[in-house]
Design goal:
By secondary structure, the chain is of the alpha/beta class. 35% of the residues lie in helices and 16% in strands.
Length: 394
């Protein structure tokens, strides 16, 4: 990685402000998926081993620039403390005299968690006044939140302009994995893309049509592609404004060395519900009134064979409505093929991560990105404020 990391500088004994991503799901005051918390542990533990005073910052959810009990970080602090095996003090504020006093009273190895950064409206505006208040808390700023790196906020970009700054170990891993995949993918290189909207993914599709050997399409956006080919898709979800975009992608694929592969069969249902009537039909002949909600068994087999035969695979987006049991088989087939693949496997965040966690297969992947939107923007070639604001290695 071209950016300096915590291991490239002397951190011993310093007060270190660390931007982490603890945007985790909560239910009844408990963390229901601690994947993102676990991802931050290597950086936190490394800093503690160096005798640092570790001050953590994160957002959670989408509060409207004011405190909201539903998005307080207390359950996160509790779970982090359990994982670290040490108490984690959580504050009720983000900045101010009370926070400064708490930071000043920390001892070596102590961990402090500030309240949800988005409770302060200045966070998302990258307000210099909040940056200045936060900067008083530490000697060094560490960005370990790749998944928030596409946001130019006070805690993701602003602090890097006023404090000595480096990347955390999770940030290093994320950027290295995605950068390596884009610069020198191993061949054959297979990309699996799901999701709802072609327009959301078209820049990613275009990038991979230049890089990959095969791009396998699933999810609702497959029906937009099928409609662009003139097929009957019944009542399947189609992004009307994406049909022309899909048609252009198909033209580009036809003129390239990359194969853009669409489902040949789908699991169709007469209603969007778990107890709907279902049938496996040809992807191009979905009955009127029926909707495709998953790739079919023939497509799942084809995709799985391509994945297992690849030297490198990138996957982003489920193949169907995997939250409902009758429409989860396609996503499960892709996840299991990724787990069995002898090649390098990179999972691109979002719902795909939820799926492999649900299936217990996350530890079978070479890299599971926490990035979601940040991963896709990185692949598109966009400059991420939280990455470009960090200094390069000399």
């Amino acid at each position: 990685m071209a950016k300096k990391t915590v291991k490239d500088v002397d951190v011993a004994g310093k007060r270190v402000l660390v931007r982490v991503d603890f945007n985790v799901p909560l239910k009844e005051g408990r963390v229901t998926d601690d994947t993102r918390i676990r991802a931050a542990l290597p950086t936190i533990e490394y800093l503690r081993e160096q005798g640092c005073r570790v001050i953590l910052m994160s957002h959670l959810g989408r509060p409207k620039g004011a405190p909201d009990p539903a998005f307080m970080l207390d359950p996160v602090a509790m779970r982090l403390g359990q994982l670290l095996g040490v108490p984690v003090r959580k504050l009720s504020e983000i900045s101010g005299p009370g926070v400064e006093a708490a930071a000043a009273g920390m001892g070596p190895g102590d961990v402090l968690l500030l309240e949800n950064s988005r409770f302060d409206p200045r966070e998302t505006k990258n307000d210099p006044s909040l940056v200045k208040e936060l900067a008083r808390l530490g000697d060094l700023y560490v960005n370990d939140a790749f998944s928030a790196a596409h946001r130019a906020h006070a805690t993701t970009a602003g602090l890097a302009s006023v404090l000595p700054s480096v990347a955390g170990l999770q940030m290093e891993q994320e950027v290295s994995a995605l950068d390596g995949l884009l610069r020198e993918p191993k061949r054959p290189f297979v990309v699996v893309l799901g999701g709802a909207k072609v327009t959301d993914k078209i820049k990613v599709i275009d990038r991979f049509l230049d890089l990959a050997d095969q791009v396998l399409i699933g999810g609702a956006m497959a029906f937009t592609f099928l409609k662009a080919q003139g097929h009957s898709v019944g009542a399947s979800k189609v992004e009307e404004e994406g049909v022309e975009v899909a048609a252009e992608a198909l033209k580009k694929a036809a003129a390239s060395s990359c194969r853009l592969v669409l489902p040949t069969d789908v699991v169709a249902a007469d209603d969007f519900s778990e107890d709907a009537a279902t049938q496996v039909v040809s992807a191009g002949a979905i009955p009127e009134g029926w909707m495709g909600l998953d790739i079919g068994p023939e497509t799942a087999k084809t995709y799985a064979e391509a994945i297992v035969g690849a030297a490198e695979v990138f996957w982003n987006g489920p193949m169907g409505v995997f939250e409902m049991a009758p429409f989860a088989a396609g996503t499960r087939a892709v996840a299991e093929a990724m787990a069995a693949s002898p090649g390098v496997t990179v999972l691109g965040g979002g719902d795909s991560v939820s799926a492999v966690n649900k299936l217990g297969l996350a530890d079978k992947m070479d890299h599971v990105s926490m990035g979601g939107g940040a991963s896709l923007e990185f692949i598109e070639g966009a400059e991420l404020p939280g990455v470009v604001s960090l200094p390069d290695k000399v």
